[in-house]
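Troubleshooting: if your tokenizer reports a length mismatch, compare your output against this known-good record of 247 residues.
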Amino acid sequence: MIARSPDITCVIPAFEQPGLLARALTSVVSQGGVDLEIIVADDSRDGAVRERVRGFAVPSVRYLDGARSGNPVDNWNLGLRAARAGACLLVHQDEFLIDPTYLRRAVDRLADRRVAAVIGPARVTGVNRRSRFAAASRIARLAGRPAWLLPSLNWIGPTAAFVFRRGPAFDPSLVQLVDVAFYRQVLSAGRAAYLEGPCVGSLGHHDAQITASIDPRRLALGEVGRLAAGAELAFHRAVLGLRAGLG
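Known-good structure output:
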């Protein structure tokens, strides 16, 4: 007998924060009405995350030793390559699912082949500095939520808000814009479906982030040139430069 594929695979990349991982994992395990596969791809240097995952003792949870390449994006892609479901979601360890029906509703909407991704509204809490995500979301909604706006205004937010079909990978050569480049790539293949929310929560900027020690605006200014050209490139650089000036 051929085993039935799960409805959706949730990949949780982990790195040395077992407390954050436990919250993210609990929120995914608590999803109702959907056949889940959960993959924890662990890049940690010790066994704390592995032991925390074992403590859950949930059959749908798989633990993978991470890529440990020094690039966290390789760990994300490791988990996605192991996915068995046709629908995928990447939930970072500082993100969590709020609505227990989120994944069931997302899978149902993704059954429409014209839909390339399902977006669930997110709430981002600025831990170390104020989050501009709510304002970016409002501006994008008024502008019709164009995908080309993503490099300078990430109106989708955390990766946990973006359910997509299995197949594409994140670009490991990007850092600050790796998520929005991925969103844009997926949305180039079809339209987005939007759920009522809130569906997802995120801690936003905090000291435990892998990218906490970098200058995000300076890095984004360098990376945006790879994602845009001409007038669009000038627009993104102007917006990012303005944000840098505002501090």
